[in-house]
Design a protein that fits this description.
The protein is an alpha+beta fold. It has 2 domains: 4-217, Jelly Rolls (Sandwich), CATH 2.60.120; 219-267, no CATH class. It has 6 helices and 9 strands; from the N terminus they run αβαβαβββββββααα. It has helices at 4-17, 28-45, 82-88, 215-218, 221-224, 229-235, and strands at residues 19-22, 59-62, 94-103, 129-135, 147-148, 168-169, 177-181, 186-187, 197-205. The strands form 2 sheets. A 6-stranded antiparallel beta sheet has the order 1-7-4-9-3-2. Strands 6-5-8 form a 3-stranded antiparallel beta sheet, with no helix packed on it. Helix 1 (4-17) packs across helix 3 (82-88). It is globular. It binds 2-oxoglutaric acid. Residues 101, 110, 133, 146, 186-188, 199 line the site of 2-oxoglutaric acid (AKG). 2-oxoglutaric acid binds at residues 101, 110, 133, 146, 186-188, 199.
Length: 274
């Protein structure tokens, strides 16, 4: 577990450079278990690469991982990763999407993009998105490590789709996590090796914008019911700042048969906004 000081330093690095790498924070047994389980899902669901350049034609992706078993429930709440994200967004952040990305041999580079570029806000702006890439294998220049352009989160525009930009590979050891500001220009790398580069894309957004994968409709309620209280909030069974996301003035967690832990904005007494 990272110290509060280390967490602050990582958040400061993201503010300055647009990214940071949390070296070796994921338990090796967990890394192996997730890798093996992704192979199971691929086999059972006959997952195949997409046919477009953005997702990659030699890249295996599995979306909406929270419906695929309890193993995945440990990812969004990881004790060394979530606190960094909470410092970049705030504790009211949400899961935006949770998917796997296995880049296979012969994959070509993904077009450089910013994960928030479809959000029509003038740039640069505060982080509305904060994304993480978990290395389930080593990430190297040769096998398709995520390519990044340090500092680009401060640009006044998003990259032009399909244009070449000089970038560096975010190389990291198995069990490490790359965390970036959603405005950072980046893309998956080309894989020139004979083995797959496997990652988990654990993506978060601010509690006041729309999640990329619809978590409340995409995860059956009986699955969400077994989630931990924090995971329920992260998928959207909660309200941001006591207001955003309410249903008829009530906290949506009540749909799961739970009492709401936090007060709604109209219950604040003016001195206390906790
Ligand atoms: O696979 C990667 O390294 C990055 C993927 C990515 O940025 C995306 O699919 O949006």
């Amino acid at each position: 577990m990272l110290s509060p000081q280390a967490l602050d330093e990582h958040a400061a690095r993201i503010a300055r450079d647009g990214y940071t790498i949390l070296e070796g924070v994921i338990d090796p047994d967990f890394v192996r278990a997730v890798r093996a389980d992704l192979e199971r899902i691929e086999r059972e669901r006959n997952v195949r690469p997409a046919k477009n350049d953005f997702e990659g034609t030699q890249t295996w992706r599995i979306y909406n991982l929270l419906v695929h078993g309890e193993l995945y429930e440990r990812i969004p709440v990881h004790e060394s990763v979530l606190p960094v994200v909470e410092r970049v967004l705030d504790p009211g952040c949400l899961i935006s999407s949770l998917s796997s990305i296995a880049i296979g041999p012969d994959e070509t580079p993904q077009p450089i993009h910013a994960d928030d570029q479809l959000i029509p806000l003038a740039k640069p702006h505060i982080a509305t998105v904060c994304n993480t890439m978990w290395a389930l294998t080593e990430f190297t220049d040769a096998n398709g490590a995520t390519r990044i352009i340090p500092g680009s989160h401060l640009a006044d525009a998003s990259p032009i789709y399909g244009k070449h930009y000089d970038s560096i590979p975010a190389e990291m050891s198995e069990g490490s996590v790359l965390v970036w500001h959603g405005s950072l220009w980046h893309g998956g790398g080309a894989n020139c090796t004979k083995a797959r580069r496997v990652g988990i894309a654990m993506n978060y957004c601010a509690g006041f914008i729309r999640q990329q994968e619809n978590q409340q409709l995409g995860i059956p309620r009986e699955i969400a019911r077994r989630f931990s209280p924090r995971l329920r909030e992260l998928v959207g069974y909660g309200v941001y700042n006591g207001l955003i996301g309410h249903i008829d003035k009530r906290n949506p967690v009540e749909l799961l048969g739970e009492d709401a832990a936090h007060r709604m904005v109209w219950e604040y007494d003016g001195s206390d906004r906790s």
